[in-house]
Structure to design on (197 residues):
């Protein structure tokens, strides 16, 4: 009996001391792109799209899960290739350039004079796991007209979009985030078209 107990103890200790391999890290890019033809008439203006700002924890590349009203968890193994505020800024600039609403869409490094400036914050990009999992995306954007002696705010608005995540995998989360972003960019374009002329 003692040899059997000794053997079981050795096996148990060996199993506990075996190093575990952590999950492989996976990273994603947001790829939302405008697919339809540009609008028929451009306003001919130059728009500067400023880099979006993001408060912690949304300034980090990792996926953020919301588990309760107050509890959030950061995924140490899955997330975006670069922080989402940077990716969304790039997608926003490319989307608006492809829309044809403006003569030119430039970033904050361009030296050319601009008629309007778009600035804002990434307020939230989370995977809400409280009920049926969804990706929630919220941006606050301000369009400022710079043509007069005093800048005028054309709009200051919060945009929200959500998409279901099923199954709850990293690939499905990234796909839902991309779909939510595409829907939001379409809404932003419509809002700008109504107020930027």
């Amino acid at each position: 009996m003692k040899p059997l107990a000794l053997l079981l103890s050795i096996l148990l200790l060996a199993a506990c001391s075996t190093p575990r391999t952590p999950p492989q890290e996976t990273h994603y890019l947001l790829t939302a792109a405008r697919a339809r033809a540009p609008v028929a008439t451009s306003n001919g203006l130059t728009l500067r799209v400023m880099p979006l700002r993001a408060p912690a924890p949304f300034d980090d590349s990792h996926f953020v899960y919301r588990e309760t009203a107050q509890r959030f968890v950061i995924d140490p193994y899955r997330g975006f290739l670069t922080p989402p505020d940077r990716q969304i800024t790039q997608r926003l600039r490319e989307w608006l350039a492809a829309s044809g609403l403006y003569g030119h869409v430039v970033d904050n490094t361009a030296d050319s004079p601009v008629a309007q400036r778009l600035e804002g914050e990434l307020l939230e990009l989370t995977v809400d796991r409280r009920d049926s999992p969804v990706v929630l995306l919220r941006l606050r954007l301000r369009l400022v007209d710079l043509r007069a002696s005093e800048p005028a705010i054309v709009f200051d608005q919060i945009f929200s979009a959500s998409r279901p995540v099923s199954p709850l995998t990293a690939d499905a989360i990234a796909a839902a985030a991309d779909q939510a972003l595409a829907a939001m960019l379409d809404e932003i374009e419509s809002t700008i078209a109504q107020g930027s002329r």
Q: What stands out?
A: The first helix runs from residue 2 to 17. The longest strand covers residues 116-128.
